[in-house]
Amino acid sequence: MTLEEKLGQLTQVGGDGSETGPHASTGTVDEIRSGRVGSFLGVLGAETTRRLQRIAVEETRLHVPLLFGSDVIHGFRTIFPVPLAEAASWDVALAERCARVAALEATAHGIDWDFAPMVDIARDARWGRVVEGAGEDPFLGSAFAVARVRGLSGGTGAVGTSMIATAKHFVAYGAAEGGRDYNTADLSDRTLREVYLPPFRAAVEAGAGSVMAAFNELAGVPMHSNRRLLRNVLRDEWGFRGMVVSDWAGIAQQLAQGVAATPADAASLSLSAGVDVDMVSRIYLQELPTIVRRDPRLSRAIDDAVRRVLQAKLSLGLFDDPYRYSDVAREALRTLTPEARALSRKAARESLVLLENRGAILPLQKGLATLAVVGALADDTHAVLGSWSASGRPEEAVSLLAGIRAAVSPKTRVVYARGASPSSDDSSGFTEAERAAQSADAVIAVVGETEDMSGEARSRAQLDLPGAQQALIERLAATHKPLVVILMNGRPLVLSRLVPLAPAVLEAWYPGTEAGYAVADVVFGDHDPSGKLPISFPRTVGQVPMYYAHKSTGRPPSDSDPYTSKYIDVAVTPLYAFGHGLSYTRFEYDGPRLSATRLDPEQALRVEVTVRNTGQRGGDEVVQLYLRDDVASFTRPVRTLRGFARVSLPPGGAQEVTFTLDRDDFALLDADGKRVIEPGTFTVFVGGSSGAERSAQFEVTRGERLTGLGSAIPRFMRTQPVH
């Protein structure tokens, strides 16, 4: 390979995401023919990718096939709930199935490299990209990272349907100061290793073939030139052998960050740090030839990067069959199938979280004489798809209004009033909404955010309902009709003013293609709500960042002592805690029961808990186990999630759930960052949220220094895929 051909393999050219492909221009075709393109971003369609692939393998000197990458975040054409919503299901087997369907559809359209999953931990709801991840907890985040990587890759039998999964954004992007996208992150190495790195390591263990560098800096070093993390940790410690790709023009952004004086400096820094592929800026192709001829030491870094790109293409079988992802017949068969839509509906149902149900307002009866549905979002098929909806089409999605109309009795009159929009302070629709409410037996108000209020570059300083929606809720509540509020949003909202007015509040997030049917399934009682929050909901924006696994200060909050860690104007607790979610039935817990109260660090501990459905209808419960290290040489969180399981119980039914804890759960990092187990007591908590009160204590009798990293994959997912 010539130097230019090598750099071509490290160059990704951007497209516009159209099925017809914008890259038939003479200039781009010439770039392919001269070996100056290794991959495309946002170019899709079996016919288009086949045409470009033919140029690469038949009209170039080296005949090296192309990669085609895209952001398939929560579905391709069949759109599933946004990742934050999917995490609210706490169902990793279902998440793996959804990712597999997304891969089947995307690969049928020519895509073989996916820039997902996003595994950033997010504890500041102001950050717009909260919607793309699994929330605030590294254990839950690691579980969903593994499920999504496995689903996208498909295992050894997924010839032609396996995608290269990309764990992004490496690392601590979710810790951006002020919740502002692209902003600085600054945190301790202990927090980095205990909170932000584990989901990435779990994704790498699960087989992610690519890692994307983050836009942020960390401890003064931009991630696109962070050699310590990209080389020393990712490659040397973890043994990662896949590709590292820049984020969109992220290499060039080091000029604005102030660590590079010229584009050539930026390119050299990133290559040396371990960034293999330049996304869309062409900075490697343009700047590195002159630098390498002046400093041949960079040649080895280029060769290593090229080998990783070629290995990725080899692993997909592109050298054997470069057109295996460009089959027009498969493209038609794999897209938006009835089975895929049914799975989307199931995933959406499981993601819904019942926040409030005072007076058992829900479920509603299907035979109401008149039902009022209010809110611009109720009839919005764009919003239900959420951000990053790939090739999802609003005309193929089911609005909440359509789903409600399809579910009610033929004799029920459904009256719709737009009321208010998230995008405007216009209150001119209030009168019509009030009139509709007054004529109805019950009111469903759909409020929240439009799809473009969450996602990249969508940070918000305020977390209240945008527009005139809060005022609309106040007017509807004044009619004194039974009021159900359905929320559509991609982040925790501040609901302190809404909740007193609405006896029933259902968090629907952005549910995907089958949104309306799934929401109606829950609202009218055909499906019991079982979702649990993967992120805490604050009482006010002034509380963020907020998360359950905080440390205890030297002065823990006390109502009787003003000189403790709290606020003088609002409670220190969240409005809704991590793991919270109600049901139409009731669950009670017995236990926990421990297999031992004193154990050696090499022993595993079994924790048993019995869950009973004491209500009048069947339902699913997510049983959660939390652990606290009572006394340690370093301060520890008040509790951390170490296990969860979904159980389905009929009325009066009971099930025993067993969790296993071992040395990976007992260990902490010492002053040198090495894993150790310290002797002492631990407390386990079991229940239906992070506020679980049922507990038991055990003692680890001696200390031990552990060798190796241990596994970042949750224990229950280590042996095999969970589906």
Structural account:
- With 723 residues, this protein is an alpha/beta fold.
- It has a domain at 587-717: Immunoglobulins (Immunoglobulin-like).
- Helix content is 28%, strand content 19%.
- The strands form 6 sheets. An 8-stranded parallel β-sheet has the order 9-6-5-4-3-2-1-10. A 6-stranded mixed β-sheet has the order 11-16-15-14-12-13, with helices on both faces.
- The two termini are 43 Å apart.
- The relative contact order is 0.11.
- Residues 19-24 have low confidence and may be disordered.
Structure summary, number of beta strands: 27
In percent, how much strand structure appears in the residues?
Answer: 15-25%
Label the structural class: alpha/beta
What is the first-to-last residue Cα distance?
43 Å
Task: Describe the strand arrangement of the main beta sheet, using strand numbers.
Answer: 9-6-5-4-3-2-1-10
Overall pLDDT score:
96
* Major sheet size, sense and barrel closure: 8 strands, parallel
CATH architecture of one domain: Sandwich
Number of helical regions: 20
- CATH H-tier superfamily of one domain: Immunoglobulins
Q: What shape does the CA trace take?
A: globular
**CATH class categorisation of one domain:** Mainly Beta
Rounded radius of gyration (Å): 26 Å
Helical fraction equals: 25-40%
Named CATH topology of one domain:
Immunoglobulin-like
Low-confidence stretches: 19-24
